Amino acid sequence: MNPLTSEEAKRIAKDVKRVTGRLTRTQVVLCPPFIYISSLSNVTSKNLFLGAQDAFYEEAGSFTGEVSFRELPQFNVSFVILGHSERRKMGETDALINKKVKAVIGQGMTAIICVGESSRDSHGNYFGFIKEQILSSIRDIPKKSLSNIIIAYEPIWAVGAKEAMNATDLLEISIFIKKVLKDYCGDISDDIRILYGGAVDRVNADVLVRDGNVSGLLIGRESLKAKDFVEIIKLVDNI
After folding, report:
1. Per the residue annotation, which of 71, 117, 154, 222 is the catalytic one?
2. Distance from the CA of 131 to the CA of which of 10, 14, 140, 222 falls in 20 to 30 A?
3. Residue 162 pLDDT level (bands cut at 50, 70, 90)
């Protein structure tokens, strides 16, 4: 639920848009609170896209407080974050996320599906937990449509922490996620991007992407600091 004013949201978007025109390898997606999406609908450009932080799976009806997947495209929304750890903490299940993913993809938008364990055990049981989150989220989705998903790995223990996971461990998880996807949908998995989120900043951004073998980053608090966010974008674009 940040930033607190429409003016601040517009300022961040303006600062980010200024740098995206010079990008050669990177796409940037801004996912503001719903109340700012309308005022930012014209911010999009060749390398800058607008996303939503969530979407409801019903097209319309008596669902007070929800925002339908059908309501978003009119504001140039082309990406939607689904299954974020904070949403899961409030009770979202894999089955509910699966419904949302189907709705978002069916509307022609890209679903950014968040997965990640709350803690790690010495026996590696968290691998099975991550696998189940992924497969449950994409269950019964036509394989030809899976190129419209992005997997965002956000270990819950690193979200909001002072230190991100190290690139070596991230590489292991990245390889694992790619194997899960490969086993499930074959060569289509080559088109599915993997992001990392959790304590990302301008100090660790490039090493996480480069050595962690991910396609990009899901950035939280640092995205509210326009100067630092722009610096992260530049670092990633130069990899």
Report:
1. 154
2. 222
3. confident
pLDDT digits (tens, 9 = 90+) for 165-192: 999 999 999 999 999 999 999 999 999 9
**pLDDT (tens digit per residue) in 10-25:** 999 999 999 999 999 9
3 state SS for 104-116: HHHCCCEEEEEEC
CA distance 69 to 106: 9
Q: Comparing C-alpha atoms, which of 187, 181, 223, 231 is closest to residue 206? A: 231
Q: Is the pLDDT of residue 60 over 80?
A: yes
Rounded Cα–Cα distance for residues 157 and 164 (Å) = 9
Is 123 an annotated catalytic residue?
A: no
Q: Count CA atoms within 13 Å of residue 36 on its CB side.
A: 23
Q: Which of 84, 132, 172, 222 is catalytic?
A: 84
Q: Is 154 a catalytic residue?
A: yes
Tell me the domains of the chain and their CATH numbers. Answer: 6-237 (3.20.20.70)
